[in-house]
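Morning run. Coffee first, then this:
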Amino acid sequence: MKTGCHWTRLLIGLRPMVLDRDKYLCQEYLRNGRYTPTETVGYIKPKAHGGTDDLSNLESICRDCHKAKTARDRLNRN
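And here it is:
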């Protein structure tokens, strides 16, 4: 896991708020009508693409969706 300043802020303050707001459900799957519990939080718009640590740019996302989204984001970055 990354240990940079923004990750510390995310884990300490925002992560629980995001999970509560999203009812611990993967938002990627929920958009497709599927209810999948998760305890993972990720960026909607990656920091590498100009995203922020704002609550509005964070969502609950399961590990499988997070992995797939990260791969897509890396392709789009290049």
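Residues 5-77 form one domain. Good start to the day.
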